[in-house]
């Protein structure tokens, strides 16, 4: 057995959201957003992108919008076992032991809690899906999830220590961008009044595919809520929308690729020239800020007693 160390997560696998508008949201994400429904239960839907992941988005019917869980990828059950042992040794609350997953996509994994009671999942060996025919530019993967937190420093320390994520950049002391692989960020935290999902970003393969996706949404009656523009930190093109439940998805492209050996995190001043390199978007409106703020999310509920 190798000496204990943080896991080396290979990717963000999927994001699961609780939504107050399940049916309308399934229609939105499997329609103009460009994902495809792979599995359905009365209370939940599983949607894939064009990449190899079984699904990149789960939607669960709920009384309030919230994060259900975030899933990360490791290649082998042995690495999953080591990640669970590491998390437990670092004081994380494990919800179950590593084992076969009895959920769509199956695989081998476990779940645990972050300090704000978010449910995290680490898994290996999930089911393959058939190649998806690509006659339209659609998202190929989930690029990142941004989470509002009441303690950005504590969360940054915990996610770097327990999950092995690395800090790529700061946006003043307001946001921090964390990477698991060459992508500039797979998780970002935003300092806020309460914990809640801020937005989930989906990546298309090129700027052309990104603009065509914005066009497809526009023709279907969905205008951007912020963007199109291009972020300073991460250098990614962005276009934000509001989904039928009021949650925020982002269509993104050209996320900065990081060289692990030479990268130096920077602190980005929050000025217009760096907030939108295209200078097309302008500042976010109070309305999109409100949607990104969400409603207070208590996270996983402990059973009474
Ligand atoms: Fe984003």
Automatic annotation (TrEMBL):
Source species, domain of life: Bacteria
InterPro entries attached to this UniProt entry: Glyas_Bleomycin-R_OHBP_Dase (IPR029068), Glyas_Fos-R_dOase_dom (IPR004360), GlyoxalaseI/FosfomycinResist (IPR050383), VOC_core (IPR037523)
Domain VOC stretches: 11-125, 141-254
Region annotated Disordered, chain positions: 283-305
Protein name (database record): VOC family protein
